[in-house]
Design the sequence.
């Protein structure tokens, strides 16, 4: 049946309610309609739009949910950033003696800023992932 | 959309057909899903014969709240609409 693989992916990446209300009806209507060559691409487009719309609906809802955990995410990010920044200094060969002789010129500050920014971005992502609402891949026999 | 649903329960594609091109099949399901999340419409899965294959289709109908919101929107739209005499 057309749309079965999209339904399987949808069950994994979408909330159950979102899947039932947004993606499942789109697939069901396409499966019900008699397939014709002219309507084939319109069917695929309808499912794709429903899927992207459902993903956007879920992500915006999840971000709102995450906003209630901002303090905890901030603390986790700070801990992770400090840890990885320390590890960066440790493995870059900058001992305490060399650090004290470094010239804090423009290029050095720029590089340092890039590294710290990259570390913070990665840490925000991983911290947010800890609080991201869970998804479940459910195997259902109806498709 | 609520006008189209008032007369009978409809599927998503039926709504697209009945709208005469005003509703697009690519966006109808997301819109209906959002409307259901806000309580404007209610839906149920179709009754299916045993052994039927594929996903069950979803039938939509307006809720009493949805009808009230639509009526209120109509009143507001009419109240805000400029009449030719007022537009001068």
Sequence:
């Amino acid at each position: 049946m057309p749309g079965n693989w999209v339904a399987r992916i949808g069950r994994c990446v979408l909330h159950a309610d979102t899947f039932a209300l947004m993606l499942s009806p789109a697939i069901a209507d396409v499966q019900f309609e008699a397939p014709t060559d002219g309507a084939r691409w319109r069917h695929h487009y309808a499912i794709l739009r429903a899927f992207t719309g459902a993903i956007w609906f879920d992500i915006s809802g999840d971000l709102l949910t995450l906003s209630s955990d901002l303090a905890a995410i901030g603390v986790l990010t700070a801990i992770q950033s400090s840890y990885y920044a320390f590890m960066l200094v440790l493995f870059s060969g900058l001992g305490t003696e060399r650090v004290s002789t470094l010239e804090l010129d423009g290029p050095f500050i720029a590089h340092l800023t890039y590294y710290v920014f990259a570390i913070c971005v990665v840490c925000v992502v991983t911290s947010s992932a800890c609080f991201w609402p869970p998804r479940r891949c459910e195997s259902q026999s109806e498709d | 959309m609520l006008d189209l649903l008032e007369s009978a329960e409809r599927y998503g594609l039926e709504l697209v057909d009945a709208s005469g091109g005003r509703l697009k099949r690519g966006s109808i399901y997301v819109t209906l899903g959002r409307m259901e999340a806000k309580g404007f419409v209610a839906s149920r899965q179709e009754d299916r014969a045993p052994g039927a294959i594929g996903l069950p289709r979803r039938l939509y109908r307006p809720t009493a709240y949805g009808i009230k919101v639509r009526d209120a929107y109509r009143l507001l739209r009419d109240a805000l609409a400029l009449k030719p005499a007022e537009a001068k």
User: Anything to note?
Assistant: The interface with chain B takes residues 1, 3, 7, 17-18, 21-29, 31-33, 42, 45-46, 48-50, 53-54, 57, 142-143 of chain A (CB under 8 Å). Chain A is about 80% helix and 0% strand.
